[in-house]
Amino acid sequence: MSIPQQQEKSLSQRPSADRVREILIVDDHPLMCDALALTLKISFGLKNVRSARSLAAAVEQIRTMGAPDAVILDLNLPDARGSEGLVTLRRQIPDVPITMISADLENAMIGAAMAAGAQGYISKSLGREALVDSLRRMWEGERVTPEGYEPEAGNVEDEARVELARRFASLTPQQMKILRLICQGKANKEISYELSIAEATVKTHITAIMSKINARRRTQAVLLANTVRLFEPA
Question: Which residues form a coiled coil (predicted)?
Fold first, then answer.
């Protein structure tokens, strides 16, 4: 292949905001969802802007309707708070850019979201022009974070969190539910009752969870989940 052909191929594979034609907004606030959809339609000329009010609804919609070109994901949903929603969707649509949107601009939360695979993290208080600019940059392959965000020092810690997020992404939906309950301090019997499954089944799932995230004890599993801000308190 000649150099011009190589360059042409490279350019054709480069991410472009113009290729984003279908968006999925995952947010449980109707007004926020409608405002975002209207902004996207006007600013990017989009005709197909889908929405989901919960993580479960988003997962089901992607399963039945296919993957969108990009996702805008609220940090706190009725059935997922913290980076859980991001980890879950990243498992389902690994190549789709996901933008986390939130009023929470805490350094640790932004870092956890970026480690979990977010293409960017934006504030809900952004003006329309800043929002459109941030999304365009993300859809062109740039990783975008709020002004003033300072990544934690040391690439080793960042790489470890990225790897940890990948491990959590390997959990099945049922295993994620069980891990969430473990992090809430629930005993096996309580988990069994809450999920309407046998206690032996709970133990089997916990064994699989520990193996996947490389944890030996429940307390260690909770610590690892907290490291990537997997579950935030309501």
Answer: none
Task: Give the H/E segment covering residue 227.
Answer: helix 218-227
User: pLDDT tens digits for 42-77?
Assistant: 999 888 999 999 999 999 999 999 999 999 999 999
Of 117, 135, 103, the closest CA to residue 25 belongs to 135
Asked if residue 231 lies in contact with residue 183, where contact means CB atoms within 8 angstroms, the answer is yes
CATH of the domain at 193: 1.10.10.10
- Count the neighbouring beta carbons within 10 Å of the beta carbon of residue 96: 17
Q: What is the pTM of this model?
A: 0.81
The verdict on residue 5 lying in a domain is no
Q: What is the pLDDT of residues 79-103, one digit of tens each?
A: 888 899 999 999 899 999 999 999 9
Bridge-based pairing of strands 70-74 and 22-26 is parallel
Is 47 inside a domain boundary? yes
Residue written as tokens 């935030």?
232
Residue 40 and residue 201: Cα distance in Å, rounded? 45
Task: Return phi, psi of residue 166, to 5°.
Answer: -65, -40
